[in-house]
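Bug report (template v2)

What were you trying to do?
Predict the complex of my protein with DGJ.

What happened?
Run completed; filing so the output is reviewed.

Input:
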Amino acid sequence: MPVWIEHADVEDGSSKRFHLHNDKISYMMEVTHEGDLAHVYFGPRIDKTTLSRRTPEVQRAYTANPNPVCEAYTLDELPQEYPTFGRSDYREPAFHLVQADGGRISHLTYASYEVVQGKPSLQGLPHTHAADGEAQTLVLQLKDEIAKTEVHLSYTIFEGHGIIVRSVQVINQGDDPVVLDRVMSASIDLPDSDFEVVSLSGSWGRERTVKRQPLVSGTVSLESRRGTSSHQMNPFIGLVRADTTDGHGHAYGMNLIYSGNFRAFAEVSQFATTRVGMGVQPFDFRYTLNRGESFQAPEVVLSFGSNGLNAFSQDMHAFYQNHLIRSVWRNRSRPILVNNWEATYFDFDTDKLLAIAKQAADVGIELFVLDDGWFGGRSDDTSSLGDWFVNESKLPGGLQHLAQSINDLGMKFGLWMEPEMVSPNSDLYRRHPDWCLHVANYSRTESRHQLVLDLSRQDVTNWLKERLTALLERASIAYVKWDMNRNLTEVASAVQSSARQQETWHRYIIGLYDVLEHVTTRFPEVLFESCAGGGGRFDPGMLYYMPQTWTSDDTDAVERIEIQFGTTLLYPPSSMGAHVSAVPNHQVGRLTPMTTRGHVAMAGTFGYELDLTTLDKEDLAEVQRQVAFYKKWRTILQYGRLYRLKTVDKHSSDAAWMSVSHDSSAAIVTYVRVLEAPQPPLRRLYLQGLNPEFTYEVKLDTGESLGHFGGLELGNAGLLMPVFMGDFSSKMFVLQKVDGEFYLA
Ligand code: DGJ
């Protein structure tokens, strides 16, 4: 068992050091002579025998000193691991607790440590996992002797990844209750401020586009107060150097394994250091801990990469693949699906669905997904959420009959549901009007004509578990699309005391996870895809339970390039639902060729979202070709190493990316010309990730060979694009290693 966590006492016994390291990174901490836990280093690996690096102490003007005889020791400059409030550090605290007597300051000092093999699991929260030989965990116990509170900081280092997973548990050891106002999952003080902040932000239909902004004095805050991790801001913060690109440079990231309100911040201090932290959103959060009770904060994934954002992303993808997603599907080929949403919306009957399914089966599609509108009296979005019983007047014979008919065509059957919601016009709401989030005497704000079930209530989650289990047991359902189509309002619970109302945001998410735990454990073979009005909850928390997420309701091929580039900054292609839809596109009205729509959608878990029965012969033949092509190459497209080669920006309207097999013997390259220009330059694409020793045959996806090229040559001299023209045009290339060929001397 390699030693990844080392510790040492300073010779005079005045302090203690910890060093977590693997072949990629080092993470160092020190317990100072005052008992504070200082951050020393996080970055590229440092020789593992070095434990002599110390926290600098410099005498500063106008700063307070917790120990009057140590004037060079001030918390306002000390780089810390878990900063608190009220004792001379004026930067953002990670922790804020209110004691029974109203006291609001904390003094957490180091008490003890423990090294655990592997990665302990968290109760009730999604979490990373590892076998004993793949990870080691350091748990540092801090104590506030006055508040009688313990804080356990957990750090797991994994074999082969530039990643540390942190989490925090707070335990009230006193007799009186304490109130948590803020419990960040991680905080870290980096030694300079020469960074740009990277966020994945946007809106419905344009989620997770990469934004970069320089860090200056003050605080940048990235957050959600919507009850979901949100379309607007993904639970991620990145810090990169100004010269960091896809191919070069340092990158730090924090990604929260949580699906609700969050906050991430980066604060530049007066001494030009950077404090970056992340955790559950402290706004409107208060959590009471009675004697002996504890609070578990979600895990945050701290990542570091030295070699640019492509390598950073590849590490994240592999990490989530191996250590987060737990479904049996995590390494399985994902089926090609057809979804009826954009084909029919609510306007369907059995004949229409079976006609689409028949056409889908004929072209080789493997899974038919019935979207919204199959239950209760739902014929538009104004009713029936909560009435999870099939509408037999629309689908005679029920789901069993439909599923059987789909199975008879040789396809699996999948079903849409939106379990967290209730329509005011539903039998469920008429029976249980108090089951939704609401505040007494205030009106209940609807969004898409629906209210949100109060999942912080156990009677509601119990009902939901039973209903979903009954539903999934009845028909042969191989796939579930779990949707969630609004943000939370009137976040209060009819069953909580007034003092605990601000726990409702978090308790909602805990209730959701409880239901997901139940359903995904009970039906382990079902492939779950999460969705929240597209990508409103594309986060590691949902990925733990559901290995795929519907990326965005914007299915336009051009829009999708940017969304997919942003999404794959963190999340693996196998998790990214991507479908070909009809033209003119329903979200932006754009007309793009079927080939380009296929090429773009093949960057993720592939499918169609259009009425296949309306396609002309040519398009249908192209669909058939795409399906066969994707089946042949999906292992690489879903699980290969992804390289973003060209990003649409002010210099170019072309985009390109490639996926390479893990042994580098094959690769798929995609090139999209978004807007054409007259007399364009000859385009060369400098390929990455190939084996310089290998010779590759390069073919178009249509089969035409472009010749044999060396791996080194394709990287250094590039692949010359064949001449092709037109807005929204694209080419896809297949590279395969050929044996027995040698370079000319
Ligand atoms: C929002 C989803 O993102 C869509 O794909 C579709 O399932 C609709 N909801 C159905 O209401």
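What did the reviewer find?
DSSP finds twelve helices and 38 strands in the chain. The CA atoms of residues 340 and 457 lie 34 Å apart.
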